Amino acid sequence: MPANILDASALLQTLPNVLPEGKKKLGSQQDGITALIHTVFTVLGFRLIGTDESGPANTFDNNVLPENWNQHGPGNYALRYRHEQSSLEFLVKVVKLGGRTLVNSIAIETDKTATLDISTNDFTSPSFFPHDLTASDAPPLVHGFISSNRIDDFVSQLKLSTLQKLMPGLRKEGYTEQADTNAGPSQPRAPEAPPARPRPEQPPFVPEDVFPRASPRNPLEIGRRDRDPFPANPFAPPPLFPDASGDGMFVGPSHPIFGAGMRGRGPGGQGPWGGDGFLPPLGAPPGARFDPIGPGPLPGPPPLPGQGNPRRNNGPFGAQNPDNDEFMPPGYVSIQQHTGRL
């Protein structure tokens, strides 16, 4: 198996050869990162055609950088390349952004872009720069990139973020593409967009059995009482289906609308909101004035003194006295006498 051409030791041996002959100096951390990127592209067979964004294509022997390659450094660098396996032109820009370094790349003809964002101090040593490679007492170049492992980590990120995106399937002996271990279901999902129309809020409290389940009903008896003008025989045995009895076409005390199943479970057979249980949920708020009138030919007997609210006294057939609105409200006379308006 051929050796890895992007090994840290191999790159460190090649890097001095791509610097200008009379200017083998790295003035800043960004100089070192840009020179290392150019070394990687050179080893992979990319041909340098310019150190600007849109100038004419030039030829550089052995891919050696021109003397003005870092004239805009450490803030901005531009490198343009071509490759024999592609008809595209590639632009690589290295930008200093505070304590970080951005490597922005693009295949110009296709607008295919790639970006690498790194912490500058994670891959270079600030105390190492500026560095003159020709000095007799110059420390080893690897110290400028902290260690060989750090160089390998940087090259790995450059492959994933830039090389494999701009030129996938690059064929070069000693070069292999690598899988992105960060891709997959572990990536965070995008936040879910809120619904276009907010959902209506549920009421804070819904009483149970507002409309109780009806008793079993004989399907053959549906609509029978609408055709029968007379009530059922009171001496007949109880039917199998309770719904079969009733008052015929006439509404009487035994009509199902006055049954206990329609009145709810409140005290005295009343619904949970007062009256006969036919009010919708929360139809009558607590303390509201309501006139419950039950079935029956006659009102119930008047209450005796001290027996409470007369509206709750049941008359014959379960009837209830109505609240006669033609009478004055309780206490009305005494109030008017006190205010002198009566």
Mean pLDDT: 75
Query: How big is the Rg?
Result: 47 Å
Low-confidence stretches: 183-187, 260-277, 293-299, 307-323
Overall shape: it is elongated
Structural class: alpha+beta
Q: In sequence order, what are the helices and strands, one letter per element?
A: HEHEEEEEHEHHH
Number of helices: 6
Largest sheet: 5 strands, antiparallel
Residue share in helix: 10-25%
| Number of separate strands | 7
Q: Can you list the strand order of the major beta sheet?
A: 2-3-4-5-6
Characterise this structure.
The protein has 342 residues and is α+β, with helices and mostly antiparallel strands. The protein is 17% helix and 12% strand. The strands form 2 sheets. The chain has a 5-stranded antiparallel beta sheet with strand order 2-3-4-5-6. Strands 1-7 form a two-stranded antiparallel sheet.
List keywords for this structure.
7 strands, alpha+beta, 6 helices, 17% helix, 342 residues, two-stranded antiparallel sheet, 5-stranded antiparallel beta sheet
